[in-house]
Design brief:
Layout lengths: L1 H5 L2 H30 L3 E5 L2 E5 L22 H5 L10 H8 L15 E7 L7 H8 L6 E6 L30 H15 L4 E8 L3 E2 L3 H10 L40 E3 H9 L2 H9 L6 H13 L10 E2 L19 H9 L3 E3 L2 E3 L5 E2 L7 H12 L4
Helix pairs in contact: 4-6, 5-12, 6-8
Amino acid sequence: MAIKSFNTPINIINLLSSFFLFACGITCGIIFTFYFKNFSVNLQVINGQILNYSSLNSHPLSPPPSPRSIIPRLGLNEYIKPINVEHDMSDEELFWRSSMVPKVKEFPFKRVPKVAFMFLTRGPILLSPLWELFFKGNEGFYSIYIHSDPSYNQSHIDESSIFHGRRIPSKEVEWGKINMVEAEKRLLANALLDISNQRFVLLSEACIPLFNFSTIYTHLMNSTKNFVETYDQPGPVGRGRYHPQMSPTIKLPQWRKGSQWFEMDRDLALEVVSDQTYFSVFKKHCKGSCYADEHFLPTFVSMKFEKRNTGRTLTWVDWSKGGPHPTRYYRSDISVEFLKKLRSESSCEYNGEKTSVCHLFARKFTPHALSRLLIFAPKVMQFNH
């Protein structure tokens, strides 16, 4: 009787229906298991607020990036672009930033070497019209940096002037004091921020160029050495300014004197900015009658980099009348003959050969001399050639 009941049509239909429902149950179970395993967001009401949280079996979802967190790609052009000279870095930050040196010597971009003209002044560039003529037409081959007294606000500088917006963050400078050397280092550090600057010239507001731009540019770029004046001078204004407590870092036979108006390449500029050992000794012991601007660089360069230095300055100055300051030149002193004399009446060595081009700049010229300089200098110096 039991076997017969399985053979009836009704029992067969029930069996197939049960099998179908069983198969559907398994399929739905698999689908729901997979779905709930990956479903990570649940809702829970706590203190009247709805919070999202993730299940233990899922990874937390990261929020979408906000507009501020999306940083645009900074290409090489942004990296090598010169920093604005009117930055807000402290001296400590500036010297650290400017002392960075790439290990790879070959540049992966087209670079035009520039000369950094660094003016250490009390106020305005007194002979700026002459310098405007000198620089005209040579854009891209030079950079200008001005360190002036903080009280000078540059309000009268026209926006069209090449000197507009070129003043670096400056501090007070006193003649003969260590803060004058700090100002020189500050100028060098700012100029080093532009990787295209390869030669660095320190000038004052009383300096003039003796040749046109192309001549000076070529002379500096082709030079194999630096131009920091350094000599050993016995007597009270030389060795007499040495302080015994500078030893053993700096010994008396190593003490040197020279003009503060230098010209140097990028490698030496980096060494000057990076030095802490020798400068700290000067800062501590070079006081009173020890004029740091006449001794720090001559001593430092002579001790560490003498083979890379000519030992002479490129800035002509007349000390023949004696006294603590060189001769000043006024309107009546300026003539074609006088300018020609400054340009060629001397002899020196340049890249191992004798030459009469020993000075590229001269000082001290007063604003009263400007009118005649504007008449004679462009012809004698062949500006715009």
